[in-house]
Amino acid sequence: MPDTNAQNCTITLEGKNYEFPVITGTEGEKAIDISKLRDTTGYVTLDIGYKNTGATKSAITFLDGEEGILRHRGYSIEDLAEKANFLEVSYLLLKGELPNKEQFEDFDNSVRHHTLVNEDLQNIFRTFPTGSHPMGQLIAMISSLSAYYPKALDPHRSPEAKNRTTLRLMAKMPTICAMIYKKRLGHPVVYPNNNLDYVSNFLSMTFKHVSDADYQPDPVIVDAMNKLLILHADHEQNCSASTVRLVGSSQSNLYATTAAGIAALWGPLHGGANQEVLEMLEQIKGDGGNVQKWVDKAKDKNDPFRLMGFGHRVYKNFDPRAKIIKKTCDDVLNKLGINDPVLEIAKKLEEAALTDPYFAERKLYPNVDFYSGIIYRAMGFPTEMFTALFAVGRLPGWIAQWQEMVQENQPIGRPRQIYTGHMPRTFIPRGERQ
Ligand code: SDX
Q1: pLDDT tens digit string along 296-319?
Q2: Whose CA is nearest to atom 16 of ligand 1?
Q3: Is the whole-model pTM more than 0.85?
Q4: Which terminus has fewer CB within 10 Å in the chain: N or C?
């Protein structure tokens, strides 16, 4: 997109004025382009955690943290969650447009024909200790896919090779996730049923017992899972997407790059928060449900406890996804006839926090992870699987971000630093050291 309203800004350093271009995005965001800062001034910037630093331009996702707005390629997350399915939104992120009927059928069929994983992978899979964390298994399995597709190792090889790798990842991520779930139960793997749609196939591989010939996933759960995967599909330059861009910028292959994104997502401050939220709510329930006590702990600077599922680097208003998930949560539990006391604790915790000045002053609101775990649990997933489900949803976003970086032939990412260590020192032989 052309940079509209181009203008300059002046930075004065040591009495000298330097001009730098200011660029404006299509939604009016402004940035100072400092690409030539060090060459012209000898200075670099310091912005630990990149709270004020744009790493790239992008046309994929727009967030307005103050207004609580999220759009993918111009479409609101509310419309997409309500009116599209996850594979459609994946196509939108990857191709830039919503698919027409033929395009969707072609994409859907292409994905279906890559859902199996090489049987050899079962040998790797069997070596994981039963009960090992799903995210560690997912990282290893996704990275191991690169061993079976050597032509995919060159991400610049050809558009066809990139497209095939994209289809393989989209198709095999749910299969591998379902394998990990089955292994936790000590149950045999259920193979993909390519007569089913993407989400129904994922739920069938997960919850169908190998001897249950008549299994059909509950439409309520299929609809809720589509919504949840859409709500997790992309979120501009979050920690894991930035990891994917950085690892991909070295021209590492897309399997290894995706594995790096999964690794970043695992952290409890990022995607791992959905598991932490459920464990926190269970802890509060076990402690008698005294939510105010835990809100006070979260405010206490001497207490490392944080209200998991609350706060966000960008949203300083409600995370629009949290609003949709909260409503979906009520719908799913009502339709499934589940009365989960943890949901009531979550609502009380949200109410207590939102009326507390500490959270209001810091603009801390429930984020995407606050309610999602309650739905996943209602569907039958164990808590440790939650972040792997986040990865299934985020995959098209990671690939879209990687694709955009590759298509623009961006340089390898290599931030600068400010050195604060020792000045030069004389080397003293070991025998002479004090
Ligand atoms: C995701 O980036 C993305 O888009 C991520 C994501 C995506 O879709 O990819 O949206 C998914 O990762 C959602 C976030 C999930 N993480 C959690 O729910 C973990 C709990 N939340 C936090 O740890 C925190 O809010 C972060 C990590 C999400 C954001 O942290 P920041 O932006 O670095 O803010 P900060 O840690 O500097 O906090 C600012 C202030 C601090 O207090 P002061 O030092 O100003 O007194 O707010 C406080 C913090 O102590 N604070 C919290 C808090 N979150 C921030 N206090 C209590 N509980 C919390 N949850």
Answers
A1: 999 999 999 999 999 999 999 889
A2: 269
A3: yes
A4: C
